[in-house]
Amino acid sequence: MKHLLIVLSGPSGVGKGTIVKKLLQKGGFALSVSCTTRQPRAGEVDGKSYFFIDKERFEQKISRGGFLEYSNHFENYYGTPKDFVEKQLEKSDVILEIEVDGALQVKRANPEALLIMILPPSAEELKARLEKRGSENEETIARRISRMQYEISKKNEYDYTVINDDLNSAVGEILNIIANKKGDIK
Ligand code: 5GP
Questions:
Q1: What is the pLDDT along the chain (186 residues), one digit of tens a residue?
Q2: Which of 16, 97, 99 to mutate to test the pocket of ligand 1 (most atoms within 8 A of CB)?
């Protein structure tokens, strides 16, 4: 059976990370590990959270055509390594947890990709969640909120949107969407 490229996006703090963890626990999915030029946060592991590389190496990889997609946001590059994803896709469905500009690049290059946007029950709630996370300063939070509005404005370009009100329902909904899509392309 053909394996699926699943792109999950959604504003910071919406709970994408927790949803991805649950999907990985179900089995049958591999998570793509992106490259980024941003500094690791406490607890992040190189090669697991991201491949942390410098700007020069990132730009060399761009010029070699090494990314399936990449974007420059929050003043850093983020990109999906092409070879890593292609290798994973031979074995299982692959999840990319990336922002909207990159997601739309993936869709253009690969119309079979399944794009799902995860949204908060309300923008106010998300703002509160983001502030509670406490890992960033006020300026960064403000930038993330304006980015959140931008991301939400692109939701109609996604195949599906899922509201993360209740974690298990959101995961169930995503699994149904994936199962239906796999049924279509069998
Ligand atoms: P963070 O800095 O919080 O880890 O991630 C910031 C944003 O970058 C998130 O929206 C995340 O989904 C996105 N992101 C992570 N990896 C990639 C990637 O490979 N490509 C793109 N386009 N966005 C990414």
A1: 579 999 999 988 889 999 999 999 999 999 999 999 999 999 999 999 999 999 999 999 999 999 999 999 878 999 999 999 999 999 999 999 999 999 999 999 999 999 999 999 887 877 787 777 766 788 888 888 888 889 999 999 999 999 999 999 999 999 999 999 988 765
A2: 99
Ligand 1 atom nearest to CA at 16: 12
Atom number in ligand 1 closest to CA 50:
16
**DSSP-assigned letters across all residues of the chain:** ----EEEEE--TTSSHHHHHHHHHHHSSEEEPPPEE-SPPPTT--BTTTBEE--HHHHHHHHHTT-EEEEEEETTEEEEEEHHHHHHHHTTSEEEEE--HHHHHHHHHH-TTPEEEEEE-S-HHHHHHHHHHH-SS-HHHHHHHHHHHHHHHHTGGGSSEEEE-SSHHHHHHHHHHHHHHHHHHH-
Q: Is the pTM of this model over 0.70?
A: yes
